[in-house]
Write a structure and sequence with these properties.
Blueprint (H helix, E strand, L loop, with lengths): L1 H19 L33 H8 L5 E5 L4 E7 L5 E8 L2 E7 L16 H8 L4 E5 L2 E8 L4 E7 L5 E8 L3
Antiparallel strand pairs: 1-2, 2-3, 3-4, 4-8, 5-6, 6-7, 7-8
Length: 174
């Protein structure tokens, strides 16, 4: 009787845990060696690029972040610009006082090559070229590019209409 009760409580928890894992997701690192490099050296938001100091962020955007979140493990700070932490325009991840990534979620800011949210997959490929990888992550299609010389990565999250919903630019740690 005790084993049946235990099983009835543990089994749903295990199912929930398994359901939260997306087995179709492939980490971008798997595509690194097979994807040809694209130059992303000039990528920036309002002159803030990967490696810029945390002081450059407020200076170049001409205002302090609306929200600041501090994470202790691993240690980093997130500067968020927008209406809320859920509906933001841009957020910067700061590690060791330098920008290690930024995420664009509104059309207020765009990439160096002029891509904004709601642009099409065709627009992205026209601007960045055909040397991209494509993967699925939590139900979204992601297309991305690697700059192996400057250790940068850019990814475009596409919705079901193949329109850009978000843009992530980050430093490659390898």
């Amino acid at each position: 009787m005790c084993i049946k009760s235990y099983f009835l409580f543990i089994f749903p928890f295990i199912l929930l845990l398994l359901a939260s894992c997306d087995p179709s997701s492939t980490p971008k690192e798997k595509y690194y060696s097979s994807t040809k490099a694209t130059n992303l050296e000039l990528e920036n938001v309002q002159s803030v690029s990967i490696g810029s100091s945390k002081y450059d962020v407020a200076s170049c955007l001409r205002k302090k972040p609306k929200f600041i979140e501090v994470t202790e493990q691993p240690p980093y700070t997130t500067y968020i610009y927008g209406k809320s932490t859920e509906t933001y325009d841009v957020e910067f991840k700061i590690v060791d006082n330098k920008v290690s990534s930024y995420d664009l979620l509104s059309s207020k800011y765009g990439t160096e090559k002029g891509i904004h949210t709601s642009d099409s997959k065709k627009d992205v490929i026209r601007a960045y070229g055909k040397k991209y990888y494509e993967r699925e992550d939590t139900g979204a299609t992601i297309i991305g590019y690697f700059d192996k010389n400057h250790k940068l990565n850019i990814e475009f999250s596409l919705d079901d209409k193949d329109e850009v919903g978000g843009i992530l630019v980050q430093k490659i740690n390898n």
